Amino acid sequence: MRVALFLSDRSGRVVTRRVNEPDHARQLDRAGAAEGFDFSETSLGTNGLGTAMEERTALFVRGAEHVNEALHSLACAGAPICDPVTGRVIGSLSLAAPLDSSDQTMLAIARQAARQVEASIAEAATSGGLSSLIAEFVGASPRVPVIALSRSGLMSSTGALPLVSAGTHVVLWDQLVAHDWSDPHVAVTVAGQQGIARRLRGRAGDDVYIIEVETAPHGEVGNPTRSSSVDGLAATTEQLSRLLNHASRTCGTVTIHGPPGSGKGYLAVRWLRARDGRQPTVVAAPEGREPHVRARIHRLLTEGASVVVRNVDDLNDDDRGWLTTVLESAASPRAGMLVLTVSIGRGPAAIRALVSSRGRDLAIPALAHTPERVLSITQEIAQARNLSVPPVVLQTLLRWPWPSDVCELASTLHAAADASRDGALTLLALPPDMRAQARQLYGIAASEYRTIDVALRAAGGNRSLAAESLGIGRTTLYRKMRQYGLDGTGTLSA
Prior knowledge:
The chain is α/β, with parallel strands linked by helices. Helix content is 41%, strand content 18%. The strands form three sheets. The chain has a six-stranded parallel sheet with strand order 11-16-12-15-14-13, with helices on both faces.
């Protein structure tokens, strides 16, 4: 049997060809099946090398099943080659024989050969770059949690497992690669814990980052100063709740400051419900001008019930009297918990001064400055709506400025969930200006997006014609459309 062996890299370019008969070599040369040629599915359509990588499985392509007519005289059995550590497809292997002398045994041989290549890569890695990464990871202080990140994934020591989630890589990666690394050690925050990151230089684009997380003493919840703030990645709901618990042990009044729409009232209600086991009473501050409302607040507090007074910044100087009465009602030893919410920078100075003179303050930073809060809220809503959130969508959400803070994020996610199909949020379901920003950020992906968009529009939205013009399979086109949130011209057909 005249059989040639091909090996491609992850881009689909043929890096090695082995053939033992000159006639067969010339036949392959005429078909463009030689070293240096691009056999990716995007460039050449269905073929043994490129399609095996796209579908991540071994397959047999015979004669006219090849999109390229020059390959119709061949039968090709291809199998993907995957990184033994990350699982990423890093290349493919294919056996090619004349159509009239091929058989299905080629597929089994190709599959087995690909597994042998993967085993060789794993064995070689033990004395190469991977071994140094593992040595660095294992050699980090065993007394602290350790996290290692590469472009393709994340490793965690047992002690760091409670700190990582599906979105940890998304949150940290952009920060680490954007840093100038003029200092070899960089302070980071992981799930509210402080850590020190260092970079291991690898091949271009293959740098690895090791993070050693500092462990706080048991029971420590933050700096016991009069005013507590939550910075950077620490601003998760759980962190905020711990700070509120700490503040509530020293006084009966806590004021939550934050930008408009930052979820101050939601946080207060959620915390008090978990603390007291029952729903607190919520009152909008301007309602307190009514005598019966003032009397009700006083009665509830003196009976030991918790009260949330929202939008204190909407009061005016004439309201100082009743606000003082409310604060005094919460000051008695047996009084319930009083939580005030105030938008930063708003309201009369006299009201702000009165509030600041009583109780404890908790400042919530803007959502755009706390990416882990974005991640936490996104995961919470996605779980409630039974949806998955691809990394490309998470990246987009984390990079958006969120001028209306938590309210904007929640409304965006619920609208996207309503518009999503197949159980996954896509870029298509996000607002147009958000999608536009995302496409500007993704470099090569943006070029691919534009190419597919042009093909879809040229085909009048017909996916089959667009896939044919691009030289890729319909399955591949559908996957990429979901990835980029494309809808063609809005008149898509099968």
